[in-house]
Amino acid sequence: MKQINIILGLVLTRVRLRIDSLLCNQPKSWLCFCVVFAAPFDTEVSESVVPGLFLQGVLSKDEMRELEEEFMAFVRREVHVEGRDFCDMSGDYTKPIESFSIINIMLPSKYNPRLKGNIYEKRAASITEQLLGSDMALDYDQLLAKPPNKPDAEFKWHQDLAYWPVTKDTRTASFWLAIDDSRLENGCVQFVPGSHLESNLRHHGPLHGDRDKSHTLAATLSEDDKPKPAEIDRGDVTVHHERILHGSGGNFSSTSWRRAWVVAFRSQETIKKEREIGFTHSHNDNLKVLNEVGKESEVIS
């Protein structure tokens, strides 16, 4: 199994997670993944001890082709997406669509119900249940695309929790599926090892002044931060914790896209509390709600 430096400095363990044979077209229903844990796998994992995973070859070539077709239908604007849920994460909301550098589509399964329960979502849900328990559920999905020749397609450093309501239950599994081979040249994700262990979230500020101009938040790296690139292949997946600091650079390739499909899982109770305050992960959510998320002083109980 190839090596990947994601969130190093912890105990590297190999484990086997069961992929239900009904969900997997592969001849084997058991796959071995490289996993990074803060504790041995046979200890309690319902707490925040799973900072990151690397899962190799989660989807077959045929499965990837089908997902890619659905993905590009959104990029070509063949699927209607409401308001700010189709935006550029590198620019403000006034940026013309033809100039987008990081095409961002929030909640694709909302706008194309055919995507609900797709093979990727089912497989990710199976893995999440094994890692974090049977009460986990899909919180949101997202598509991200950096076209070729977009050196300004930088996704600013951030922790996912800065975008979300802070809750007592910290269990999170955010899956990042590579639609293309993901390399430094075309803007692969980079993680800051150990940042999920910090006692407080980093300070995040709106990239363009306020959340009404742009959804994007930005944190700053410290001199001690040593980002590690996650250079993974098409069909591979990373899974990360809500507090891990990560970001990505521009796409300097003249030929390669850098596309990713995100599905994120939190506990059913956490999702219920999010929806009760009007938070759905849509960029069209009430601005007052968006301005109140990511505050550790206001934990939703």
From TrEMBL:
<dbReference type="Pfam" id="PF05721">
    <property type="entry name" value="PhyH"/>
</dbReference>
<dbReference type="InterPro" id="IPR008775">
    <property type="entry name" value="Phytyl_CoA_dOase-like"/>
</dbReference>
<protein>
    <recommendedName>
        <fullName>Phytanoyl-CoA dioxygenase</fullName>
    </recommendedName>
</protein>
